[in-house]
Design a protein that fits this description.
Elements: E1 12-13, H1 23-34, E2 39-43, E3 52-58, E4 61-67, E5 73-77, E6 92-94, E7 98-100, E8 107-109, E9 114-116, E10 135-141, E11 144-148, H2 156-168, E12 183-192, H3 196-204, H4 209-212, H5 214-219, E13 237-238, E14 267-273, E15 277-282, E16 285-295, E17 298-307, H6 309-313, H7 319-339, E18 353-354, H8 361-372
Antiparallel strand pairs: 1-18, 2-11, 3-4, 3-6, 4-5, 5-10, 7-8, 8-9, 10-11, 12-17, 13-14, 14-15, 15-16, 16-17
Length: 374
Amino acid sequence: MTASTALPSSLIRTMPGYSYTESETFALEQARIFEQYWFCAIRSADLPNPGSFRNVQVGRESVLVVRGRDKKLRAFLNVCRHRGAKLCTEESGEVRRSLQCPYHAWTYGLDGKLVAAPNLSSMADIDRTEFGLIGVHLQEWLGYAWVCLADEPPSFSETVMGAVAERMGDENAVEEWHIEDLALGKRITYDVAANWKLIIENFMECYHCATIHPELTEVLPEFADGYAAQYYVGHGAEFGAEVGGFTVDGSEGFDRLTDVGEDHDRRYYAITVNPQVFLNLVPDHVILHRMFPVSVNRTIVECDWLYDRSVVDSGADLSASFELFHRVNQQDFDACERCQPTMSSRAYGNGGVLVPSEHHIGAFHEWVSKQLAG
């Protein structure tokens, strides 16, 4: 079958194989997607104190997120203005009052302003603000810091908050979970040998669920039918009649979060926020994935399990709760890693096909293609 062959109406085409393997395509994605859209960088609570920082790769740029002495989070390009040395080489840490370049000791305040440098007093014509660190747009929402490298970022309310509202069918529904007030119960980082788009495509469909997710389909029986019910506007996949909670063995979970309404009880909601966030909502906790594309065939995925603070502080056993989606993650990422090597096969030169229960993935492909077309 060639690209020109007409497909039966039940099938639509995927993206071609080279879009998952060519470094040129990945470079274009970095420039036109990851450096132009809001990127969920860190969980705000990971930087608790003035001077706490984390270094995050966003597209081709190293971005430094730091908490200032005024307790506010700010983001900067992690580049010294003097000779371009990387300012902070460690992934995360804490400084007392300033950020100092290890090359020539140019020193910046936590607000990014140049505060000191060897012989700076003899250079009275230097504007310390103008030669401060280059700032990056930052918004906090759902307890996370989202950054954008674009000179003029897209509307946060339309592209990020709007994606969640569109999926839930109500712009205020996600507020029932009060995600910004939840505590981190578990974090697992996965190093996935697959292109970032394969991971998103996998998350968006459930045609594979009956094949590789036995634990998930026991808890959510409708997923066994292969339809991604989580992508129907406002619909949450219902727990099985004999299931006690969103746990690996179907046992009871924790108490429903205080403000989650009965209409959202015993249901699972999945949301994709382009280009790199998965948000999963269940009555007693929240699971949030952040993807960090490293190369055309490697993606780091950081997954957080968030619970009511009283649950975490009590030292409750979370294992049955987080183990369910940990297994789902492993099963999904193994599947993506099986696909990645064959993206360069001549059998996938023109891409593959999507069956009806996967057709909504086509909207994601169209979105990617539109961004790359400029």
